[in-house]
Amino acid sequence: MKQLAPVEAVVFDLLTALLDSWSVWNRAAGSKSDGLRWRRAYLELTYGCGAYRPYEDLVREAGVKAGVGASAAEALVADWNTLQPWPEAPQLLADLRARGTALGVITNCSAVLGRQAAERVGVPFSVVLTSEETGYYKPQPQSYRAVLDRLGTDPARTLFVAGSPADIPGAAGVGMPVFWHNRARMPFAADAARPFLIADTLDPLRELMQ
């Protein structure tokens, strides 16, 4: 496997790279197909607005747009503390911490929900930042720069673990190498910014960090 330059820190997208948020959205929507349609509507609103608007408002608007109803947003928030990490995530992150690697999170949600979600991983982070705190939604560069500033690390020595393709050009644009944890095995656009590695599990992170 291709090796990275020495890495000081690893920054994660929280809600897809580390946690199975899809299942929670699907339950709140009532079905997998409704959840997917709702989530796509939410991402369209999020990527389109750039500067932060209240997360819960965007989720509610997307629910109306997707036809699942505004009440689905309340169901999502009520179910938030059922978020589960991907099976390999807790031990992998604990091992990285034990080796002295700083761990950070930058996530597109409110400060309250971001911290609740980070706690669901079960491993403490050096930095947890949300779009509410940075003032911008990813993939705007301000969010990635904010987490780098808080960690105090060089972008070239800070690996970003993306959970969605939008994070790839966002993180790469500020100088971070990117590992795309493509759990859903989404197709990769040939003309898109290229990640350092693509895998459908977090396990290759162990070898990357050796």
What keywords describe this structure?
210 residues, alpha/beta, Rossmann fold, six-stranded parallel sheet, 47% helix, 12% strand, globular
Entry summary:
This protein is of the alpha/beta class and 210 residues long. The chain is 47% helix and 12% strand.
* CATH fold call of the largest domain: Rossmann fold
* β-sheet strand percentage: 5-15%
Tally of strands: 6
Question: Uncertain runs with pLDDT below 50, 5 residues or more?
Answer: none
The CATH class label of the largest domain is: Alpha Beta
| Biggest sheet architecture | 6 strands, parallel
DSSP helical segment count: 11
**What order do the SSEs take from the amino end to the carboxyl end, as H and E?**
EHHHHHHEHEHHEHEEH
Number of structurally distinct domains: 2
Q: Give the distance, in angstroms, between the N- and C-terminal Cα atoms.
A: 11 Å
CATH superfamily of the largest domain: HAD superfamily/HAD-like
Report mean pLDDT, rounded to a whole number: 94
CATH architecture of the largest domain: 3-Layer(aba) Sandwich
| 3D shape | globular
In terms of structural class, how would the helical and strand content be classed?
A: alpha/beta
Strand order of the largest sheet: 3-2-1-4-5-6
Radius of gyration: 16 Å
Fraction of residues in H or I helices: 40-55%
